[in-house]
Amino acid sequence: DTAVSQTPKYLVTQMGNDKSIKCEQNLGHDTMYWYKQDSKKFLKIMFSYNNKELIINETVPNRFSPKSPDKAHLNLHINSLELGDSAVYFCASSPTSWGRAYYEQYFGPGTRLTVT
Amino acid sequence: GEDVEQSLFLSVREGDSSVINCTYTDSSSTYLYWYKQEPGAGLQLLTYIFSNMDMKQDQRLTVLLNKKDKHLSLRIADTQTGDSAIYFCAETELSGGYQKVTFGTGTKLQVIP
Lengths: 116, 113
Hints:
heterodimer, A: mainly beta, seven-stranded mixed sheet, four-stranded antiparallel sheet, B: mainly beta, five-stranded antiparallel sheet, globular
């Protein structure tokens, strides 16, 4: 059974369009994340939610809006897509992220977004 | 917790040892991690080390931690072609009580048969 799943796997769209990426985890985790990996493979956190509450919000254009309808789902909506948004977007989850304990993050397979 | 640095590329022959280095920035990191990313896939946790340890061994993997220099390394013994991947170190910091993980720049390991 897939632990963290994302749809779609590939997304090709034109500049100016609005698109969404969906993520679901069946691990019963409380915390979910969105990461962006650019063409040089640098991985940067964008957002993190704990039990549907936004806890990390990095310097990301407000064209990006995450939504967590329940703690098993974290979706990413992107308005007015730009060429620079082309990247691989990874969703991840962990049991929690409170405090200094050890937490493993489980990653989804990624969504490759290409903006033309 | 910005700019966790790694060398970008490492090439080794099958059967040799690989050593991947990482320089992190946050001295308060409680745990430091190594993740592996195979082509076309997400990251998977490989191993981790608690900050009060100097070394951790896990089968073919050895993690060394030098807190004074904020230097972390991952040694893979008897490197196999299946070890070819990108390896990310990661540090942690607290942000509003929640743990935020910052990944390194990634090291692409190429294993030559």
